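Next comes one such specimen:
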Amino acid sequence: MKPSITACVPTLDNSETLCKVLESIKQQTLPVRQLIVIDDGSKVPAVENCKTQGVEFHRNEICRGRGYARAEAIKEANHQLVFFCDATNIVPENFLAEAAPHFEDPKVAAVSGRIANIEKNAGAALRWRGRHLFKEDHIWGEKPLLASSLSTYGTLMRKEAVLSVGNFDPNLVHSEDQELGSRLIKAGFSIVGDPSLVVYSLRNDSVLSVLERYWRWNGGVEENMNFSDYLHAIRASLNPMLIGDVRDRDLKSALISLLCPHYGFLRSISRLILGKNQRL
């Protein structure tokens, strides 16, 4: 018996890519039974950017953050497996069909794959993103592995498991997936990383946005970066990051690597001073 799946796409001002994302979900060989878009306060409502047939639209009048949007999606999902896909990512047509069998193990709460750029060599920011954020050069192997954290850029999840640990934290603007993943693992659930699954990013990041994304991915829930963390980040920006850029003769990306730790430190300090730290 084929599993029943709800797909959810949270979006915030992603009009350039949202329709392509929805089409990639609709074309899955294992069809989704329910397709939800959570518009988290886009300037132009997402319903105006896409064909609405077969899509449920839910809109927040103001941006409530990633944790709130994902928590609402879980509540609205009618099926036990929920596929989260960012509004800037697409997946191959067999993604869900290959991910679903992992849930034959009742302890599996989530299944993710790799993420990669849709285009190669499309500007320094995207090359840097592929090398250091997506880790496209890393050899992941062929066998699925147990992951130590949760990412939801393109992830199939078990609704019952998510609800059993209290759902996504609606107060988190970012890192809501990492925080939920910690609770799932603590409760005895497994998060599977399957290298045969690939999510492709359509997002056209700038230098500033890719630095912000790196900070968000690595800053953690607490956004805590003390001076010792800062020094560690500087060392990491030199080795392996800068070394990797120079190895690939990518000097523009090397400049981004040199900026990375300083951006992260200033971002964390400024949010703390301004009282915007999400755990305050």
Notes: The chain has a mean pLDDT of 94. The domain at 5-201 is CATH 3.90.550.10 (Spore Coat Polysaccharide Biosynthesis Protein SpsA; Chain A). The chain has two domains: 5-201, 207-273.
